[in-house]
Amino acid sequence: MKWIPKPQGQIANVDSKWKRLDMVGSVSMLLGIIMLVLGLTLGASEGWTSAAFLAPFLLAWPLFAIFFVWEHRLPEEYALLPSSTWQIPNFAVLIAFALYIYGYWGVAFLPMIEISIRVHDEPPIVAALRILPQGVSAGLISIVLTMIPSLVARPRWTIVTGMVSSLIGYALYLQWDRDQTGSRYWWTLFLGGILGSAGMQTVLTGVNVSVMTSVPPQMAGVAGAVLQVAAQIGMTIALSIQAGLLTVNEGWLYNFANVRISWSFELGWGVVWLIMFLVFYRPQRLVNDKEHQVEQGENRAVFAH
Q1: Over the stretch 142-185, which tens digit does the pLDDT of each residue have?
Q2: Is the Cβ–Cβ distance between 154 and 289 less than 8 Å?
Q3: Which structural domain range is residue 44 located in?
C-alpha cells in the first residue's frame, strides 16, 4: 500500500469511498450502452420493426437521460463524468466527431473480407493480405505524426486534411467492381485503401490530440474514456446501418449494388460530419484558466487549437 500515492486535491477530502465510485452513474451508462448495442445488433438480424430491436433500443435513451441528469446533480468530486467537462471548448464537438472514426474502417473492411472469402472462395489469409496495405498506411502515418509533432499542433487542419483524404478513399472504392482485377483494382481498392486509411488515422490522431490538450490534466482519464466509448458506439452504429443497407436488394454481399449503397452512405455521412465539424469547431489560442488556478492553487495552460 505504501507504493500507492495518496489522493490530493478535492478527492483527498472525500469521506466515503463508495460515493466516488458513482454506482448509479456507472450502472445507468453501462446498461444504456448495452441496450443500444443489443438493439442495433438485433435490428440488423431480426428486422428494424421487431420487438427484439425496439425494446432495448427505446430503453437505452431513458437510461442515458438518467445518467446525464444524475451526473449534473452530483458534485464534481463524486461524478463519473462531471458536467463541467462539456463546457470545455470543442469537447462535445470532438466527442461527437469520434462517432465516425472506427465505423469508417469497419464499413470498409467487412465487405472486402466477406467478398474475398464468400464470393471468391479465397482463404482467410488472402483476404487479410488484401486489406494489409490499409493497416500499413495507417501505421506509417502514425509514425510520421509522432516524429513530426508540428503536423498535429493545430488539430483542426489535421482533422480536415485527414477527412478529405479518407473521403477520397471511399470515392475510389465506389469505382471498384468486385469481378474486375488488374489496373482497376490497383487504382480503386488499393489506392483508395491507402489514402482512406492513412487519412482516417490522421483524423484519429488529430481528435485524440485535440481532446487531450483541451482538458485539465486531472480530467485526462475521463476525457480519454469518453472518447473511446464514443468511438466504439460509433462502430456499432455504423455496422448496424450497413447490415440493413446490405439487404436493400436481393443477394446480400453477392449483389455488389448493396455494398456500393453502404459505401455511398458512409461517404455521404462523412461529408455531413466534415461540414458539421467546420461549422461548430472553434479554434482556441493559448487559454489560461485563471479561475481554476485560484481554486487549485496551481498554474495551468490548456492548448486547444
Answers
A1: 999 989 888 888 888 899 999 999 999 999 998 887 655 556 77
A2: no
A3: 21-68
